[in-house]
Amino acid sequence: MFQTVPCTVPHCTLLNPLPMKEAKSNRSLFLLAGPGLMLAATGVGAGDLAGGAFAGMKLGLAVLWAVVVGAFFKFVITEGLARWQLITGTTLLEGAVLRLGRAVQWFFLLYLVVWSFGVGSSLISACGVAAHALLPVFDSASEAKIVFGIGHSIAGLILVWIGSFRFLERTMTTLVCFMIIVVLVTGVMIGTDWSEVVKGLLIPRVPAQEGGVAWTLALMGGVGGTLTVLCYGYWIREENRNGPEDLRTCRIDLGISYFLMALFGIAMVILASGTVLQGKGATLVVDLANRLGDKMGNPARLIFLWGAWAAVFSSLLGVWQAVPYLFADFWHLFRSRGVTIDSFTPYKVDTKGKTYRGYLVLLALIPLIGLRFDFQIVQKLNSVFGALVMPMVALALLLLNGKAAWIGTEHRNRWWTTVTLLGILLFFAWVGGPKLIAVFRG
CATH number for the domain including 131? Predict the structure, then answer.
């Protein structure tokens, strides 16, 4: 049972399952890192695989530092949203809507719908391509992508529909651990100049070649997902982390998560460094696997392909499981219109409820349309929206976590957090601005 306990922040109540606190202290570090590993599983998909490979192919080892900086940026953002939720008892979306105005929720809904279709189509296609590379039972690659893609989307729907949170957590953490181990091992075995790796990690520099700045920034911004960082708040609520005493656990959890994601990105750059690949997206990863097979034998190729499949399917499973939380939270806010921060009641999303499951079904089915058609405009819009989410979240955290009256003096942003968030705003304006201009120019 949930017990309401007082909070030191004005206008705040926390749903605190007191009996669970003692039980959590006996859990292993691996289990405590569950939400962070789910974040890694969801955030690392086909785009991260291909982005790391393409940056390594184009720019080599000199840009490894960008992976580390990108992981640090996402850590600061995710820690900020976890801090807000644990102190105030409201999710970041609820806090932004109730503190910054109801217009936020409608902008968020527009973003959520466009992002869901674009990312859903991308993940389904990537799963189809990865499965065809492992099981080439179709003569036509395009036909295989459709059949395997539909199969993976439906499988993800069924697993989320019937599976408990604990089952899905264990499934996704298993997949992400396998994925990271495979990529790290192949990255070490491929053979490289480790002195250049150290230089690339420690000396920030951008290769003076065409597209060098753009690809470095893209690599930095692609670490760890976009909208999926918001889902971390719902996962920690499932883990019954509901108060300030859980903040340290979340920081450890997130540190492990982004450390692993940084290792993954570094390994992908190393793997692709010095190669010439012809594909794009998921097909780029398959091309990389074939090159690994040429150098290290067919077993290495198959192992890497299984790792790539684990990456894209765990990402699909994570998106299918997590994104309906966001819509359910939006719907709760919509139904609570007219309610102020003083009278708003935070709630735990019912994953068996109609709102959550309705969006889950739509998420699994509507993006299937993208298997047949080349939605270039949708992909462009999705790219822009993906670049915009981080500055939007950073701005929200600057405003929400910057006021002692809202979050308390002890937990408001420190100066270094404020500087980092401002840096994130400037960085993503640099990346997202040109993309936005390009879309409007056609």
Answer: 1.20.1740
**Residue 336 predicted with pLDDT over 90:** no
Q: Is the pLDDT of residue 344 over 60?
A: yes
End-to-end CA, the chain:
54
The values of phi and psi at residue 13, to 5°, are -130, 145
Distance CA 47, CA 127 (A): 12
What integer pLDDT is reported at residue 249 of this predicted model? Answer: 92
Position 117, amino acid: F
Backbone angles phi, psi at 67, to 5 degrees: -65, -45
Q: Could you tell me if 129 and 286 are in contact, meaning their C-beta atoms sit under 8 angstroms apart?
A: yes
Q: Residues 250, 236: contact at Cβ < 8 Å?
A: yes
Token pair 């462009």 is at which residue? 380
The answer to whether residues 160 and 325 touch, using CB atoms and an 8 Å cutoff, is: no
Alpha helices (H) along 228-297? 232-238, 247-272, 282-296
Helix (H, G, I), strand (E, B) or coil at 408: coil
Cα(307)–Cα(89) distance, integer angstroms? 37
What does the alpha-carbon distance between residue 234 and residue 215 come to, in Å, rounded to a whole number? 32
Structure tokens at 345: 């009641």
Q: Is the pLDDT of residue 39 over 80?
A: yes
Which of residues 436 and 257 earns the better pLDDT score? 257
Q: Please give the residue range of the domain that contains residue 237.
A: 3-440
- Residue 133, CB-side half-sphere exposure with 13 Å CA sphere: 26
> What is the number of domains present in the chain?
1
Query: Coil, strand or helix: which one is 4?
Result: strand
User: Among the ranges 237-241, 283-287, 386-390, which has the highest mean pLDDT value?
Assistant: 237-241
Q: How far apart are CA 378 and CA 371, in angstroms?
A: 13
Higher pLDDT, 272 or 374: 272
DSSP structure class, residue 344: -
Q: What dihedral angle (degrees, nearest 10) is formed by the CA atoms of 258, 263, 267, 269?
A: 50
Residue 372 carries which DSSP code? T
